[in-house]
Amino acid sequence: MPRYLLDASALLAFLHQEPGSIRVRSLILSGTAAMTVINAAEVVSKLSAKGVPAALAEQDCRDLGLAFIAIDETIAFAAAALTPATRHLGLSLGDRVCLAAAALQGAVAVTADQAWAQVEGIQVELIR
């Protein structure tokens, strides 16, 4: 089981060598990080929107050696249950999926999104 679950913002920070990328790199290299397939799809979508061919963006994600976590009904319903507590923070469904998966797996959710610091009851690490 992974100790850290990367949000799309964390992996994008790493790929674009933005602030926080060194921390994400260390988690990837340590083999303790994973990502949900929903968050991986967000990364590929964002890269594609910037002109990177989807197949290349997907391969870049795969080449990192991250484990990808499938989303089952337990994670999906836990993510939905987070909506009332996170609505005021403007979190997306992908954000809530990462948080729910982290909570269910006893992992730390890793993000660049400062709003996540206000989420209660789930371990969150901000990379910047």
Describe the structure.
The chain is an alpha/beta fold and 128 residues long. The chain is 52% helix and 13% strand. It has one domain (4-126): 5'-nuclease (Rossmann fold, 3-Layer(aba) Sandwich). The chain contains 7 helices and 5 strands. A 5-stranded parallel β-sheet has the order 3-2-1-4-5.
Order of helices and strands: EHHEHHEHHHEE
Percentage of residues in helical conformation? 40-55%
Strand content: 5-15%
Total beta strands: 5
**Widest beta sheet: strand line-up:** 3-2-1-4-5
Biggest beta-sheet profile: 5 strands, parallel
What is the residue-averaged pLDDT?
96
Question: Brief description of this entry?
Answer:
This protein is of the alpha/beta class. It is built from seven helices and five strands, in the order E-H-H-E-H-H-E-H-H-H-E-E.
List keywords for this structure.
52% helix, 128 residues, five-stranded parallel sheet, alpha/beta, 7 helices
Layout of secondary structure:
Blueprint: E1 4-6, H1 8-15, H2 21-30, E2 33-36, H3 37-49, H4 54-63, E3 67-69, H5 73-81, H6 83-86, H7 93-105, E4 108-111, E5 124-126
Parallel strand pairs: 1-2, 1-4, 2-3, 4-5
Helix pairs in contact: 1-2, 1-3, 3-4, 5-7
